[in-house]
Amino acid sequence: MPAPSLPEQITKYLTDAHSIEEQALAQMERAPGMAGDPELGRIYAEHREETRDHERAVRDELHRRGAEPSTVKDVAGKVGGWGMVLFARLNPDTPGKLAVHAYSYEHMELAAYELLRRMAERDGDESVRALAQRIAAQERAMADRIAQRWDRAVDASLKEKDAADLGKEVVKYLRDAHAIEGQAVQLLEAGPKLAADFPELATVFEEHLGQTREHQRLVDERLEQLGSGPARFQAGALRVGALNLGAFFKLQPDTPIKLAGFAFAFEALETAAYEMLARTAERAGDTQTAELARRINGEERAAAEKVSGTWDAAVDAVARERVGAAS
Ligand SMILES: [Fe+2]
Ligand SMILES: [Fe+2]
Ligand SMILES: [Fe+2]
User: Fold this and answer.
1) Contact indicator for 154, 280 with CB cutoff of 8 Å
2) Dihedral, CA of residue 19, residue 21, residue 27 and residue 31, to nearest 10
């Protein structure tokens, strides 16, 4: 089977974007009722309207290109569904989990549109370029709105759990952090092989793998100081088993470019988890854990920046391949 041309590849990415928006819409319809806080509820409701517009705009663009969006039902069975890979096992059912999930999901959307915009630029497709730019700006703004409200998310979560013992909550978040770092290690260990033709990303992964192992060790150490083990099979506060690695490894030829998108969203998930941990620890008077969480978070943010710094190279590699395939 010949490799698809660049316009065909763009159509495929629009189809992916459409399924991402359908999944986002399902979440944003439930989110206001689960927000646990009026301000968070308001921003979810606002973004629900934006998401409706995104779904419609991407669908219109697909029609313009003579393509049909696949329905969520179709996508659920395919490993190509972005959200199915990253969020398959994450069902947000508490205000804190919802905020963490939403923050990471917005970053996944942002990555998808940033990659799409770059592809459209390479292809001189102004219509898709402008669409991707417009939506990306709204996804970024939504992520920022959530980030301005971590305190509310923490308060709503603690209220809901009626957490008399804040120390226990800190331990739960630390256990989540431990589990998330474990997943990050798996992703980063596999990443360089998946991104073998994409040295820019492989290098970022290798660098962050060392940091990630150290994060996990530090979290482990802190849990021991608090008299608890990581309890790998015990539920934490977030219970984030976010990454469906099995589905991930089955991804097809455009893996490196998607990998660059997923890794960005995964770093955002880590950031969100540490934002919650730091604040919960502060409320518990556990400054040592709070400081640890903030320090690690700085490295997660830096890693996300570095991942997004590979996007131009990722899209150039794909564009080169497609042009080569077309000639
Ligand atoms: Fe969206
Ligand atoms: Fe969004
Ligand atoms: Fe990380």
Assistant:
1) yes
2) 180
Give the Cα-Cα-Cα angle 115, 121, 122 (nearest 5 degrees).
95
Distance CA 178, CA 217 (A): 8
Nearest to 143, CA basis, from 55, 47, 77, 76:
47
In 3D space, the residue among 191, 128, 181, 198 whose CA is nearest the CA of residue 299 turns out to be 181
Q: Is the pLDDT of residue 325 over 60?
A: no
Ion ligand 2 residues within 5 Å by Cβ: 24, 106, 109, 139
pTM of the model: 0.91
- DSSP 3-state assignment of 82? helix
Distance in Å, CA 262 to ligand 2 centroid: 15
Report whether 184 contacts 266 (CB < 8 A): yes
Amino acid present at 12? K
Q: How far is the CA of 165 from the centre of ligand 2 (A)?
A: 34
Q: How far apart are the first and last CA of the chain?
A: 15
Residues of the chain with pLDDT > 70: what percent?
81
- The mean-pLDDT minimum among 50-64, 115-129, 170-184 falls in 170-184
